[in-house]
Each structure stands twice: as structure tokens, then as C-alpha cells.
């Protein structure tokens, strides 16, 4: 089995390795490029913990400072793994979505214990801010990176889709799924996707992917990378 990975390159490489260990080959086709926002070292005075909703947020935070002593609350296991790899020792994973992350924070931290700094991109999904502020937390969002959409599919991806070399496409975010659907239509590949499986992290992701017709749409049992990989291997 071979699948197309649409994640940004750094995430896609690690994901390809995980798939390979499970006997699944892959073609890497990043649909977003990541730009770190330059600036001074972050002010962490009064911050009790860091909130991470992507591995890109972890890497962008690391580019802006050397502090690795604060606890990290991560949305999922892949983000938590990136934090541990970056040298953070106190890392907890919500193994889910933004709602799961908010619950993890509320259950493990005190609202009056200090601010929460969210190392985020310019676009975020869900209402983490509202959930935490409703619980009395001082939530601070620091925009540390931008994700830019590519304007066309690569020739490698076009040929792989046309020739049926891949049997499925992996989607981890609504934005990426929407971008792929638009680019596939632009490249005249919408019909080719009718023979493929769209592997989606959540129903929200599937909703965007279904802008084009797929042979099959599979949604992960829970919104985390391990569940999505399991869905690929079980198909």
C-alpha cells in the first residue's frame, strides 16, 4: 500500500517513517509551507505552562528561546513527541483535540497558578481560548509561525494520482483537506480521486475533503495520529 502525505515537510518525514515501519509506503506532498515569525525572546514571566497544538508550534517556540523548563500541555502524542525531542522534560498529551486539551489543562493546572502561553500559528482550529477563559485561566496566544498554502500540486504528486500509484491520501487538518480538493480540481484530478481513500483525522477534516468525490472516506476513531495510522493499516 502507498499513500500520499499532505503534511508540512518536517511532520511528513516523521510520519513517513512511522508508516514505513507498518509496511506502508508513502509519497510526501506538503500542501503547506511553514514560516517562523522572527522576533525577540519570548517573555515567559508569570507563565506556568506552555500550550502546544502542533509540532510546528513546538519548533517555532524553540526558535525563539532556550527555555525548556516549563511544563508542556500538548494536543496529541505527535506534538508531545516533538516537545520531548526538543528537550522538554515535563510533557503531557491530551491524545485528542482542542476540547481534550482544554480538559487536560483544567484537570491538571490551577487557574490562579499563572498564565498559559499558547505557541500558535496565525490560523488555529477550535476555541481553546474560550474554553480556558471560561474556566478562569489567563490564556495568551503567541503567534510564532505562518502556514502558507502551495499554489499547485507537484509533478510527482500529479503523476502518482494519475497513474494510481497511491491508493489513499492522508489529511490532518480541514485547511489541508480543503487545499487538496481545490488543487486536485485545478489539476483536473478530481475524477482520479474517485478511486482513492481519503484518510481523515476528524469529521471536520472529512467535511472539507468531501468537496470532491472519493472512493471511500475513512475517519480516525479518535483525532490523533495513532488512530489515523491504525485506520490506514486496517484498510
Oligomer: single chain
Using only CA atoms, what is the Rg? 18 Å
Termini separation: 10 Å
Instruction: Note the total helix count.
Output: 9
Structural class category: alpha/beta
Shape: elongated
Major β-sheet strand ordering: 3-8-7-4-5-6
Strand content: 15-25%
What is the averaged pLDDT score? 95
- How many strands, which pairing sense, and closed or not: the largest β-sheet? 6 strands, mixed
Instruction: Please trace the helix and strand order, writing H or E for each element.
Output: EHEEEHEHEHEHEHEHEHEH
Quick one: how many beta strands? Answer: 11
Percentage of residues assigned to helices:
25-40%
The poorly predicted ranges are: none
Structure description:
It is a single chain. This protein is α/β, with parallel strands linked by helices and 235 residues long. It is built from nine helices and eleven strands. The strands form two sheets. The chain has a six-stranded mixed sheet, with helices on both faces. Strand 7, helix 5 and strand 8 form a beta-alpha-beta unit. Helix 2 packs parallel to helix 3 and helix 7 packs parallel to helix 8. It is elongated. The termini are close together. The model has no long low-confidence stretch (mean pLDDT 95).
Amino acid at each position: 500500500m502507498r499513500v500520499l502525505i499532505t503534511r508540512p515537510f518536517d511532520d511528513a518525514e516523521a510520519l513517513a517513517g512511522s508508516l514505513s515501519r507498518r509496511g506502508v509506503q508513502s509519497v510526501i506532498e506538503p500542501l503547506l509551507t511553514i514560516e517562523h515569525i522572527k522576533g525577540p525572546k519570548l517573555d515567559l514571566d508569570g507563565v506556568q505552562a506552555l500550550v502546544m497544538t502542533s509540532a510546528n508550534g513546538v519548533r517555532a517556540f524553540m526558535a525563539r528561546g532556550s527555555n525548556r523548563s516549563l511544563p508542556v500541555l500538548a494536543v496529541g502524542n505527535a506534538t508531545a513527541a516533538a516537545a520531548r525531542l526538543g528537550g522538554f522534560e515535563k510533557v503531557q498529551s491530551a491524545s485528542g483535540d482542542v476540547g481534550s486539551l482544554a480538559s487536560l489543562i483544567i484537570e491538571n493546572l490551577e487557574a490562579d497558578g499563572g498564565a498559559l502561553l499558547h505557541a500558535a500559528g496565525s490560523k488555529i482550529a477550535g476555541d481553546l481560548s474560550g474554553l480556558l477563559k471560561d474556566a478562569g485561566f489567563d490564556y495568551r496566544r503567541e503567534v510564532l509561525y505562518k502556514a502558507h498554502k502551495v499554489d499547485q500540486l507537484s509533478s510527482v504528486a500529479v503523476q502518482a494520482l494519475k497513474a494510481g500509484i497511491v491508493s489513499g491520501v492522508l489529511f490532518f487538518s480541514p485547511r489541508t483537506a480543503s487545499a487538496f480538493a481545490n488543487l486536485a480540481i485545478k489539476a483536473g484530478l478530481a475524477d482520479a480521486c474517485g478511486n482513492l481513500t481519503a484518510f481523515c483525522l476528524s469529521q471536520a477534516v472529512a467535511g472539507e475533503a468531501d468537496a470532491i468525490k472519493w472512493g471511500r472516506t475513512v475517519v480516525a476513531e479518535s483525532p490523533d495520529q495513532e488512530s489515523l495510522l491504525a485506520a490506514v493499516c486496517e484498510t
